[in-house]
Amino acid sequence: MNDKVKALLSILESAGFSHDDLAGTVAELNDAVNDGKSTSIQLVSPGAAARYIKRINDETVFTARFRHSDEPDLLNNESNDERIENPNQDSCIVVSYDPAKQ
Questions:
Q1: Chain CA centroid to CA 48, Å
Q2: d(CA 9, CA 15)
Q3: Closest-CA residue to 32 (of 60, 66, 4, 64)
Q4: pLDDT at residue 46, rounded to an integer
Q5: Ramachandran region, residue 16 (left: φ > 0; alpha: ψ -120 to 50; beta: rest)
Q6: Nearest to residue 67, comparing CAs of 37, 95, 36?
Q7: What are the b/e assignments for 19-40, b being 16+ CB within 10 Å?
Q8: Is 60 a residue whose pLDDT tops 60?
Q9: pLDDT of 5-45, one tens digit each?
Q10: d(Cα 15, Cα 4) in Å, to the nearest integer?
């Protein structure tokens, strides 16, 4: 696994995400970093995870932001007038990688 992804994984695990829950996400991010491609993923946020967004932004090559329930889910092609109907997705963290910004 790429060291950049390991740093992110460590932060996400300390935020309450389990290693098993992140397995596919980590593989996608690892492939993007290794291939020099942009990607974005979103994770349903455990309650305290939002405070780790600054740490992700400061300590890794990734960009993280909080996505609120009334914001369209552009990663899943949700239009501007659609809203998340799944209450489990009321708060998500969007993590992006852009090699052009490195």
A1: 15
A2: 10
A3: 4
A4: 63
A5: left
A6: 95
A7: eeebeebbeebbebbeeeeebb
A8: yes
A9: 999 999 998 888 888 888 888 899 999 999 999 998 888 76
A10: 17
pLDDT at 83: 45
Q: Which residues contact 93 (CB under 8 A, 6 or more apart)?
A: 42, 43, 45, 49, 50, 52, 53, 64, 65, 66, 67
Q: Which amino acid is at 75?
A: L
DSSP one-letter code for 80: T
Q: Tokens for 101?
A: 């910004």
Name beta bridge partners: 96.
Answer: 40, 63
